[in-house]
Specification:
The protein is an all-beta fold. It has no helices and eleven strands. The strands form two sheets. Strands 2, 4, 5, 6, 9, 10 and 11 form a seven-stranded mixed beta sheet that branches. A four-stranded antiparallel beta sheet has the order 1-3-8-7, with no helix packed on it. A hairpin with a 6-residue loop joins strand 5 and strand 6 (about 55).
């Protein structure tokens, strides 16, 4: 069983930045998703095992950056120019297939989530 532990969430003002981290060991493609009450989980970003390939949801393109340091077994989500609509619980997920995917159902392991709140 893979354990994923997210950190770095918090309360910030619009326009600020936050960096989320996810500690995970193993050869997995990794993704970030977010969810607000009453809505489906939304794809945010994903990165391949080697880090050469990444993709982003339309709502975060140009503002968020996913990266990984396999030596530290950590995946990061740098979030810049945050907006109130970015407020959500952010989840880290691992996919045993090393390729990038945007589909939540294709991820095998999930963290418990970290709250990000952006005030206007």
């Amino acid at each position: 069983q893979v354990q994923l532990i997210e950190s770095g969430g918090g309360l910030v003002q619009a326009g600020a930045s936050l960096r989320l981290s996810c500690a995970a060991s193993g050869r997995y493609a990794m993704g970030w998703f977010r969810q607000t009450p009453g809505k489906e989980r939304e794809f945010v970003a994903a990165i391949s095992w080697g880090g050469a390939t990444s993709t982003y949801g339309d709502s975060v393109k140009g503002r968020f950056t996913i990266s990984r340091d396999n030596g530290k077994n950590t995946v990061y989500l740098q979030m810049d120019s945050l907006k109130p609509e970015d407020t959500a619980v952010y989840y880290c997920a691992a996919n045993r297939n090393p390729s990038v995917t945007t589909r939540a159902r294709e991820y095998d392991y999930w963290g418990r989530g970290t709250q990000v709140t952006v005030s206007s």
